[in-house]
Design a protein that fits this description.
alpha/beta; TIM Barrel; single chain; 314 residues; 9 strands
């Protein structure tokens, strides 16, 4: 995956944000000792019936609108694809995706992802138009980092049209925007203003975070991030263990350290400000929350809450 960064992010890096630099700048020396697979979750191999659609769980699907983004996160779970035009959907692809959803009435929730569906605004609006024609779809989610990658983009004509579309959708469906945020340095006034603008459409805003070595593997950074979000009416939703994707080995935080951080974080934050800590297992079970350190010394040497890190290694 080639390095790609916006002028806005470059400005934050030049101001001294190490956390943002580590997320977007390639290291001068990269290890060739790769241990992980390119697609450990089997999106294409196991769960993609047609182009763009990932149908892993019965009642919901992931719809990848594009493989392109305004900036390339070096920890991306889809480094095998990001930055290529291969994921761009034609009008025929979008109609085929909508037909697939229509033919599977058990699907009541659709997650638009990529790449970044807010980077290819027009294609995303076409997909949203089709989804609004399908009565069985009750919930629409949009995963994005555009507010953080390029907040000034939301002043353009295309984004104003998208915000108008979101306002109409929110009146008829439950609409959620999931914003990927990893560190408090990303929550500038510009970014928070964009998030407030999105909230005004009627969409709920949730966040997802990934544990990244050297970026946010300390309780202070995560506490500040979660409190800032909470105070601005945004719910910290998920915090993931970094996926075991080829090339991401340098970002992996020891599992014991993650559990210690999440245990300490739980003591510091109120419930609505605390994200759910999960590991997306490669065996199809989905996002599983590991037990925290609160479950130590429960009266037996081994309990149902024991968690063996070896069982999730690839």
């Amino acid at each position: 995956m080639k390095e790609r960064i916006t002028k806005y992010l470059d400005t934050l890096i030049n101001k001294g944000s190490v956390a943002i630099k580590l997320q977007f700048k390639k290291p001068r020396k990269s290890s060739k000792k790769y241990r992980f697979k390119e697609d450990p979750l089997g999106e294409e191999e196991k769960y993609s019936p047609i182009k763009g659609i990932v149908h892993k769980f019965g009642n919901r699907i992931l719809w990848k609108i594009t493989y392109r983004c305004a900036a390339h996160c070096q920890h991306c779970t889809r480094t095998r694809q990001i930055g290529t035009p291969d994921g761009d959907l034609t009008n025929e692809n979008i109609l085929s995706g909508a037909e697939y959803i229509r033919n599977h009435p058990e699907i009541d929730e659709v997650i638009l992802s990529g790449g970044d569906p807010m980077f290819t605004v027009l294609d995303t609006m076409d997909a949203l138009n089709e989804l609004m024609k399908i009565e069985t779809v009750k919930v629409i989610r949009i995963g994005t980092r555009m507010p953080l990658h390029s907040p000034d983009s939301f002043k353009t004509k295309h984004f104003k049209e998208l915000l108008k579309k979101l306002r109409l959708i929110a009146k008829k469906r439950r609409l959620l925007v999931l914003v990927h945020i990893n560190h408090p340095d990303e929550l500038t006034r510009k970014v928070l203003n964009v998030l407030h603008t999105i909230k005004k459409t009627g969409a709920e805003i949730l966040t997802q975070t990934v544990f990244l070595k050297g970026v946010n593997d300390n309780v202070e950074a995560l506490e500040k991030m979660c409190i800032t979000l909470y105070h601005n009416g945004i719910r910290p939703y998920y915090i993931y263990r970094c996926d075991y994707v080829r090339g991401l080995e340098r970002f992996i935080v020891p599992l014991r350290k993650e559990k210690k951080i999440m245990t300490d974080l739980r003591k510091r934050l109120s419930g609505p400000a605390y994200p759910i800590y999960v590991i997306d297992l490669p065996d199809g079970r989905g996002k599983i929350p590991p037990p925290l350190d609160f479950w130590k010394n429960t009266g037996s040497s081994r309990t149902c809450f024991d968690f063996d890190e070896k069982k999730i290694r690839i």
